Amino acid sequence: MISALLFATHPIHAEGVASVVGRAELLCAIFCLLSFLSYRVVLTLSSQHEPLRITAFITSLVFFYMAW
């Protein structure tokens, strides 16, 4: 009984919870990079592709907001 209680409550079994803590930083990094890549599309497109530039810019803003 005592060994089962020790096994269930020992801090060595924290790997299931420990990986959840870093999730916010990973999501922030992913959305920041996606925002940067979308903005690069805006900068590389010529003025002939104005609807695509507007769409890429709005996408960049959405990704930036999601990263924030």
Could you give a quick summary of the protein structure above?
The chain is mainly alpha-helical and about 70 residues long. About 80% of the residues lie in helices and about 0% in strands.
Architecture overview:
- With 68 residues, the protein is mostly helical.
- It is built from four helices and no strands.
- α3 runs antiparallel to α4 (50-67).
- The radius of gyration is 22 Å and the shape is rod-shaped.
- The relative contact order is 0.13.
- The mean pLDDT is 84.
Largest sheet, in brief, is: none
DSSP strand (E) fraction? under 5%
Q: What Rg do the Cα atoms give? A: 22 Å
Order of helices and strands: HHHH
Kindly name the structural category. Answer: mainly alpha
Distance between the termini: 48 Å
Return residue spans where pLDDT drops below 50 for at least 5 consecutive residues: none
What is the residue-averaged pLDDT? Answer: 84
Number of β-strand runs: 0
Global shape: rod-shaped
> Helical residue percent?
over 70%
Count of DSSP-assigned helices: 4
Key descriptive features of the protein:
single chain; 68 residues; mainly alpha; rod-shaped
Secondary-structure blueprint:
Blueprint: H1 2-9, H2 15-21, H3 23-44, H4 50-67
